[in-house]
Amino acid sequence: MPTLNKIRTALRGEQRVTPADPSLRRLRTALTVFFALDGFLFAGWVVRIPSIKERTGASAGALGLALLGVSAGAVAVMMLTGRLCRRFGSHPVTVVTAAVLAVGIALPPFARSAPALGLVLLVFGAAYGGINVAMNSAAVDLVTALRRPVMPSFHAAYSVGGMLGAGLGGLVAGRLAVTHHLLMLTAVGLVVTVVAGRVLLGHPAPRAPEAVVSGSGPRSGSGSASRRAKAPVRGRGLVVVFGLIALCSSYGEGALADWGALHLQQDIGAGAGTAAIGYSVFALAMTVGRLSGTAMLERLGQTRTLVFGGATAAVGMLLASLTPALWAVFVGFALTGLGLANIFPVAIGRAGELTGPGGVAAASTFGYGGMLLGPPAIGLLADRFSLPAALTTVAVLAAMSALISGVTRGWTRRV
What we know:
Layout: H1 2-12, E1 14-16, H2 22-46, H3 49-56, H4 60-88, H5 90-104, H6 114-146, H7 151-172, H8 178-202, E2 205-207, H9 210-213, H10 225-229, H11 233-268, H12 272-291, H13 293-300, H14 302-322, H15 326-340, H16 343-355, H17 357-384, H18 387-407, H19 409-414
Parallel strand pairs: 1-2
Helix pairs in contact: 2-5, 2-6, 2-7, 2-8, 4-5, 4-6, 4-17, 5-6, 5-8, 6-16, 6-17, 7-12, 11-12, 11-15, 11-16, 11-17, 11-18, 12-15, 13-14, 14-15, 14-18, 16-17, 17-18
GO molecular function: transmembrane transporter activity
Region (Disordered): 208-229
Keywords: Membrane, Transmembrane, Transmembrane helix
């Protein structure tokens, strides 16, 4: 009978483990590397956009349309990636999409026009969206098996990777041609994918320990493969709720990335260098918030973390958008980063716990929708009213995420 059980487990592509199993530590390390690689490659591409604009000769408007290819490609494949994860497993899909992402980052310098760049970025964006769904799905399974809310630590790795990628890009931008720089990132990406991918491919997705399956584990590790398979319609509806929470968070991230520096220059009167520091303060605060996210989740639980984060971000963004003092804007950016830091990871993780890779894909699609919606919405509102007034919508949506989290607390517990 034990042998028969092992055969059945192997056929299902699963591995029964305990939280202390060394294989879980190896999996966590490998997944952390993939999250960091994702941020590293994406930031490396972003800092070379000016060089790509110069090579293509595109106008600002044409470049903006071409850049939509990244988001469009990402959103287009997310639901498909969820189905692929259910069919083949999240680990193989993570490795394949990481390899495509590494290759795709080398393609933009070879585009000689804005339309060609847009087509190239569709491929890059599809790989970017795919790896985000796949590795988040793998992380949800691992979090469940570990019975610890470590999802924010993976997103912290993404943030750290992004900071490293942007820093390296800034150092080499004036010394290395964009083609050589992005080809170098391709080489790094493929090497890391091979090394970390061997760990993922060598370890099937872990099954939740029996304590979690039976519902007797801690609330931070709730959910299991069997419960996901029987997820009721109301559970799928709750995935939409968490998707909306993710949208509220990513709206703020996108808005600050595109409009934070301009607010400092145009409305506060800061110099270009000081304005650039503003977003760095926001990004650093978000990284710190995610590094401390596991401890916060263990202490407060998921709902309180979401409510506290949304409220903090709302207060911070009101301070940053409505006060004329430079120091107050920096403090506001820092509070906003700390508040938003764990909203997206928790929302995506909860969606995955409810319905597996499909939940991750659905919530991620909502999240990227917020990142798409934020910058143009801020621009339209800034033209109609003013940029500070437009930026208050970040506070409104952050407060909305806190409200939604609090109102649906009972629903979450029942599901």
